[in-house]
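Postdoc handover notes: sequence design on the structure in folder B. Input tokens:
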């Protein structure tokens, strides 16, 4: 855990809460402790907090920002937080495989039109490494910074497969995305696999000193959303319905007002530049979708098989989809609020119609 950056992020959030929503911070509503990473895929949560969507639902939400899904999972399991954000395609399945009963109850950064497709992650190399989009296979033997057990690792594994390489062909270094720019600049790593807004930041600040080897593409799957323990879901379903609804209002706002959403995100993503934040949201715009589909189920199954094969999930068979994702909870709430998705294209009705099907 990057303690320094975490404390800075927590301080920024606390100050933002007091300055922007003093009444909200001292609300008499139902108290809820929320924890998520300071990454651009979590912007809908930031928007919900800043625009008062949870306050309007009668909730008194306090927010803490950490660096990774694994840290958030531990906080939920230990009872240090009530609600967290994470990926069903990594955090939830890895935690469940370790014996913890986490489950996804509300996607908000997810493209239900595809099985494979992650736009927020990329591969960036130091120019001095000699690696570029013209010679991707030269990544072999390079030192690569990536966040272990994350969507970034899944993306990297799939990308390597597409160029005939495996994780064994590289030297992996576990890094948090906020630290990857410095690692590239100092030469600690040859290559980094950050997610937004850090890709945009690295490209803007390091310019000709780095090469973008790949940005986005059909490499792995990412279904990010609200996760809780099964016990919390059973005991606080009414609170969670209000919380998810507020988050989904944040999804719609982010999709429709990317510039404004980026401005709000600056309070939560430590040191992010307005230009980088806006660029990141524009790149990911199609992925701000609260729905699930047959593509979602196929994506989660695919990622479980990959994690099992890699030895990261110590189970013999994939975990049942209905344990990983609360399909009934999600669809019931969406049906009650069609205004949240009325601008979105119809969902595929078969896996064969999903984008990125069969590319992994």
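Designed sequence:
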């Amino acid at each position: 855990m990057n303690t320094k950056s975490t404390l800075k992020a927590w301080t920024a959030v606390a100050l933002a809460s007091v300055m922007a929503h003093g009444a909200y911070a001292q609300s008499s509503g139902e108290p809820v402790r929320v924890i998520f990473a300071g990454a651009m895929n979590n912007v809908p949560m930031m928007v919900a907090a800043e625009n008062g969507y949870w306050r309007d639902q009668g909730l008194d939400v306090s927010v803490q920002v950490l660096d990774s899904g694994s840290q958030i999972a531990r906080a939920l399991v230990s009872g240090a937080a009530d609600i967290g954000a994470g990926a069903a395609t990594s955090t939830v399945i890895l935690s469940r495989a370790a014996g913890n009963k986490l489950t996804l109850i509300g996607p908000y950064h997810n493209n239900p039109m595809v099985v494979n497709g992650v736009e927020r992650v990329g591969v960036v190399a130091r120019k001095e490494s000699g690696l570029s989009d013209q010679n991707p296979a030269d990544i072999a033997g390079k030192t690569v910074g990536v966040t272990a057990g994350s969507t970034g690792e899944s993306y990297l594994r799939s990308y390597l497969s597409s160029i005939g390489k495996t994780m064994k062909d590289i030297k992996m270094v576990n890094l948090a995305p906020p630290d990857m720019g410095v690692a590239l600049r100092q030469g600690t790593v040859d290559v980094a696999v950050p997610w937004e807004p850090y890709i945009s930041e690295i490209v803007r600040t390091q310019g000709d000193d780095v090469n973008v080897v790949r940005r986005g593409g059909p490499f792995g799957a990412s279904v990010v959303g609200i996760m809780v323990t099964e016990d919390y879901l059973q005991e606080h379903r009414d609170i969670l319905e209000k919380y998810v609804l507020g988050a989904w209002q944040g999804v719609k706002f982010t999709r429709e007002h990317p510039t404004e959403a980026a401005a709000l995100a600056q309070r939560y993503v430590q040191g992010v530049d307005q230009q980088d934040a806006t660029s990141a949201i524009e790149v990911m715009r199609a992925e701000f979708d609260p729905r699930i589909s047959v593509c979602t189920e196929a994506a989660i199954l695919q990622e479980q098989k990959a994690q099992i094969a890699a030895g990261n999930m110590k189970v013999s068979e994939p975990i049942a989809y209905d344990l990983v994702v609360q399909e009934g909870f999600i669809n019931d709430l969406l049906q009650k609020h069609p205004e949240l998705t009325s601008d979105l294209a119809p969902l595929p009705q078969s896996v064969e119609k999903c984008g990125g099907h069969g590319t992994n």
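Context for whoever picks this up: The beta strands are 30-37, 59-66, 83-87, 102-110, 122-126, 143-146, 171-174, 191-192, 210-215, 223-229. Don't rerun without checking with the PI first.
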